[in-house]
Amino acid sequence: KMPERVKIVEVGPRDGLQNESARVPVAVKVELIERLAKAGLPVVEAGAFVSPKWVPQMADSAEVFRTLQKRPGTTYSTLIPNLRGLEAAIAAGVSEIAVFVSASEGFSLKNIACSRAESLARLRDVCDLAITRGIRVRGYVSCIAGCPYDGEVPPSEVAVMARELLAMGCYEVSLGDTIGVGTAAQIRNVIGEVTTTIPRERIAMHFHDTYGQGIANVLASIEEGIATFDSSVAGLGGCPYAPGASGNIATEDLLYLLHGLGISTGADLQAVAETGGWISDILGRRNESRAGRALLAQ
Ligand code: HMG
Ligand code: MG
Fold first, then answer.
1. What is the pLDDT of residue 239?
2. CA–CA distance from 184 to each of 164, 225, 239, 252, 296 (Å)?
3. What is the value of ipTM here, to two decimals?
4. Rounded to the nearest 5 degrees, what angle is found at the Cα of 32, between the Cα atoms of 27 and 37?
5. 8 A C-beta contact, residue 37 and residue 43
6. pTM value surpassing 0.90
7. Active site residue 239
8. Which stretches does DSSP call E strand in 194-289?
């Protein structure tokens, strides 16, 4: 029972650029987001209202968000760690946010300087205020297949955190293999555990490609009935608090897989590939999308 349609959440402008050492000008970020939206990607995570002391790359997110020419029908989301971030996002006029927790204690402490329990308490207030203001909230659970600090992460912990996020009002939970260590068997196992109590329609998968397993893990997830995936143009990124982790699966590679399976996405692969080539050149980095490199070489 393959889905006929898959929703892609493009996270390059956030998960990608948060890990770039070079300073990326606002105008480049804005052009990147606008090109991705124009290419037909339905959701673009456009920035993060996190502490600039922690992630300086995202410090200009309010300016990016305000400058952006928003297309009707595209959702522009931003990552929010606390009430302070939400207030800044409200002032910038966001209509959707994403909150994040970790399935492991170690990553929670390193990434947001608090325990999982504290983060849940904090995010309940964030969700309450957001929902009161008519802002939709998406949730992330990190380290679903392993933690850089704690090692193995039991799937039951992933399920607990996902349920907590849904209970506080998230409409969808994205399960992140933050360090890209998961294999297809392990991912099937996590999805199996989580979907014993959560409907598949509420689950998205978020793969990093550190061990080259991302596309295989997407296929395994599709076979488990998952129909929403996060990806990053040109495979940009990593996570500043997950040393050695590489970028997300590349949006171009994901589109190539899905379209090859006859699954519709609404996105134009060629346009995404051109955007991937363009941003890689600007950043002076290698284009990490294999499909993107192949298409651009033609
Ligand atoms: P803290 O140091 O415990 O908190 O950080 P604090 O309240 O003491 O704040 C420190 C400073 O930041 C203060 O400034 C605050 O005012 C300021 P000072 O008084 O020293 O001048 N501050 C803020 N400024 C702007 N916006 C805010 C904000 N909050 C505080 N919202 C905190 C706690 C949560 C703030 C910090 O740890 C943080 O921002 N962490 C974010 C880290 C991050 O962005 N990581 C990457 C995203 S997660 C990820 O990539 C995984 C994901 O992709 C899924 C996956 O792959 O698994 C989503
Ligand atoms: Mg990520």
1. 64
2. 25, 14, 22, 20, 29
3. 0.98
4. 125
5. no
6. yes
7. yes
8. 203-207, 228-231
CA nearest ligand 1 atom 9, residue: 51
- Residue from 143, 147, 170, 239 carrying the catalytic annotation: 239
The residue nearest atom 32 of ligand 1, judged by CA position, is 112
Comparing CA positions, the residue from 2, 12, 181, 203 lying closest to residue 107 is 181
Q: Which residues line ligand 1 (CB under 6 A)?
A: 15, 18, 48-55, 79, 81-82, 84-85, 88, 100, 111-113, 140, 142, 176, 178, 206, 208, 239-241
In this prediction, the residues of the chain whose per-residue pLDDT falls under 70 are 238-240
Judge contact between 22 and 66, C-beta under 8 A: no
What is the rounded radius of gyration, in angstroms, for the C-alpha atoms of the chain? Answer: 17
d(CA 184, CA 182): 7
Q: How many residues does the chain have?
A: 298
Map tokens 């290419």 to a residue. 39
Name every residue whose Cβ is closer than 8 Å to that of residue 179 and which is 6 or more positions away in sequence: 143, 145, 146, 147, 148, 208, 210, 239, 242, 244, 245
